[in-house]
Amino acid sequence: xxxRLPIVAAFSLALFACxxxxxxxxxxxxxxxxxxxxxxxxxxxYDKDFNVFTYRNFYxxxxxxxxxxxxxxLVDLFFTANQKDNKLFLNKGNFKFEDITATxxxxxxxxxxxxxxxxxxxxxxLLDIYxxxxxxxxxxxxxNELFINNGDLTFxxxxxxxxxxxxxxxxxxxxxxxxxxxDLDLYVLNNSxxxxxxxxxxxxxxxxxxxxxxxxxxxxxxxxxxxxxEAAGILGSEIGFGLGTTVGxxxxxxWLDIYISNDFFxxxxxxxxxxxxxxxxxxxxxxxxxxxASMGAxxxxxxxxxxxxxxxxxxxxxxxxxxxxxxxxxxxxxxxGKLKWGYYHQxxxxxxxxxxxxxxxxxxxxxxxxxxxxxxxxxxxADLDNxxWRDIYISNGINHDLTDQDYINxxxxxxxxxxxxxxxxxxxxxxIDLMPSTRIPNYAYQNVGKGLAFENRTEAWGLEVPSHSNxxxxxDLDNxxDLDLxxxxxxxxxxxxxxxxxxMHPENHSVQLDLRREDGTAAIGAKVYGYANGALFYAENVxxxxxxxxVDPRVxxxxxxxxxxxxxxxxxDGAKExxxxxxxxxxxxxxxxxxxxxxxxxxxxxxxxxxxxxxxxREEDHFSQFNEERLLPQMTTTEGAKLAYGDINGDGFIDVYxxxxxxxxxxxxxxxxxxxxxxxxxxPFGAHAAAExxxxxxxxxDNxxDLDLYVxxxxxxxxSGDRGLLDRIYKNNxxxxxxxxxxxxxxxxxxxxxxxxxxxxxxGLQDVFVAVRGVKGSYGMxxxxxxxxxxxxxQLRNERRTTRSFQRLGMLTDCAAADIDNDGDMDLLSVxxxxxxxxxxxxxxxxxxxxTLERGFDHSQGLWNTMELADVDGDGWMxxxxxxxxxxxxxxxxxxxxxxxxxxxxxxxxxxxxxxCSYQGDTLFPRVLRNNLLSQLPYLKKQNLKFExxxxxxxxxxxDTLQLERSALLQVQTLRTTVYYNNEGVFTxxxxxxxxxxxxxxxxxxxxxxxxxxxxxxxxxxxxxxQPEWGRYDASRxxxxxxxxxxxxxxxxxxxxxxxxxxxxxxxVAFDHDxxxxxxxxxxxxxxxxxxxxx
Length: 1095
Fold this sequence. Notes:
This protein is mainly β. It contains 19 helices and 77 strands.
């Protein structure tokens, strides 16, 4: 049965009954709780026996649930309190509520309540209430409570009868049908009993079930629940510090999966449903990293691709001042130790995991701008303005700043501790009263970039009231078609925010769905697909989410300008569907499962690139550059794995050389018919295994008609003068056999990063430009590059006259030769770290003149990794595609507010110190935490004795003017990977789609992959060797951008590209191999992958 309840008509009487109120100017209006009839506040008091020091979750707060307990069409509210009675408020309409706690019998009998869920547990068509209890209070059983709805606004408590009176330190309970038997099962999220400092992290107890606690999975067997946790593969150890549970079908197989966010050192869990009543935990197969102190979480489709994405909150402050005051980060060695012990990649910030294909996730929180919201709890993904794109609401705050670094230092003082800890015990009141307490507003982010860009609209939407907030939910309390917000605060009245979208944005529309099974129970787990004008709107119905809370169980789809859906498809259980056409917006529909019309077919499109084969298995040399340069944000030692290709044995097939890491020899592969590749078993490369290959090119250096091999070496691990730094040339015997020519190159021992090969002086011989990466131990100091002239006698020598043009160029990462001005000779281009795109124009005789500014690169300073030259737009002029750091990072740069690197020997100890700075607002801050800075420059301690003294200082306040004036100053004005179009010798930058900015780009190829005659772009990269403070850059799965021939590109979804490339890509090359266009992918570790372009 389908019932339509037009939203405006059904509730017009309520609207007309409203009293006169002030003009509405913001999306949300804070409602007066006294007028609304809500008398509740989660007040906390502590004593010597029970406080934040004896119970670490003391300030985690309470939850809130939304649901229609009496089936009158209005959703009601339930608040949990930690030390007071929980409360139930009946919705009377028009934002008026009645407190029915006492008469309903749901106040609760335990001492400390946390989470709450509303669900029809016994399948009678009425919502029941499940309350999680916790706290370490003497005489309290902590048993969770189940209040069964009697149908007359009263409830009876039956948790023990149903077997779910769990007595762990429960955070939340989530009801869902994991085994598809038609009833609701229960996952209980529990927190560990043990003190954090009592664990031996080297000996993980993850697989050992905790007899007293641990997470539980209860199967609903009709009249009671059965604990099936162990048999179902659910971890329940004492290192589980669960704070968030969210459920959805992450891999699109029709079965519900579970995401658990764990606080402290334990990694999060992702349980994939095995479809047989059990789960497998395989987070590490689907996510490259997670939050460190994971708190609340939500799962919903944030980019309208019909796959659920996951947002997880953490504790990273937004402001630099508060970051410096309250935050520390693990160092590289601790991070590596935890990796070895099995705790995976965890970093201190919120995470937005985009579901790219069948449950494989790409983390883009920093790119989206939602990574830093302070001490955050609730995470809600919902379309708050009905524009058709889901937004993010985050509740945050902690009653006392437990991580304030000055406070921690103060109480660590021996004299202070003696005054607090006496023979009479610990004076907890003094300990707690000394803690700072700071209220800040919650965050509301508007989705302005299809899930990849958000804007902080907290103040603009009227939500800027400072608070200590915990549980938060959304629900349409007045049935006007938009989502109101309800927030449970600590030591402060809750927030009741009325959504005014119907008035502020009348151009936007929505549809709400009350989905029911045949027996009248809510269709938990059902999927909804809405289609209109080529747009897709998707939702999954699992209302228990956020933090300790349960949202409106009715599905809400914001539609933007759409007034009527072309079709609406409800997938009830993966086997049955309801398909409904021409669905009018601005209505609430009640749909029951009996309206089944069969299963709609969804076509799967072909992919562009198909994996053909793999070859080799490269290993990377793992060296910690941070031991030498502690202020480095990221290493520069993993930039090799480049490919050289050409027909070296004259058989008509392309052959390939892969650059090797230190400790292994280079890899040579011979091409053969039918796409076959065979490795070379002999060769001279093993003698130079100590070298770190950074680039290679096949070319005829001795002019004998075959291709020889030049290999560049650029290790940052070897000392100056080490023979492993020498570039090498291997002479070809004409049949693909190589021998090392020791006399071919000068023995200069620079740290090469890239080479460009061309006949620069027009004498018919191939010359070489050698780009140099930098100076060992002195990041930021400029290095000089080289020009090697080919004298025609099998020798290339340093041409000093020409090399003078390339002194102190900086830290170059790539170079290229091309005729950019179409005058018939080869010009030079380079990119680098803290450098711009630079151009040297050739006069035809290898006399180079730098024309960077004249050629249009005046604001191109970046953190460039690579470049590729090609005629991208087909106009006959060579364009440049340059790979940058990308924007999925905590830093930002622009010509108006560039990043800065001040390099100087500030403490005069003979070593340079690079000080990274960036703007926040109009202030240029040093982006180095106080302790890290003082460990490198101890002389600064006197001026920065407290964290508070350092926290808000600009770089000009930390260092004196003379020091900064005498420093080398490098800048970054853009972080975006960019294509520069050549307009008859002058270049203009052109923005690429945001998908090109998800990670550092180290590999670029220009090739037509969809056979439409236009050049497309293939991008790859990632960088893992990054300080934990910044987190590793791993979001790239390989990017395919289709060109339209008119200088614009469209990103291809990963599921359609055929690429889902893990690891750190360092090269992509394309060529014709036996009549087939092949794409070769080279990583730092693992085999070369060979892809065929689909015909």
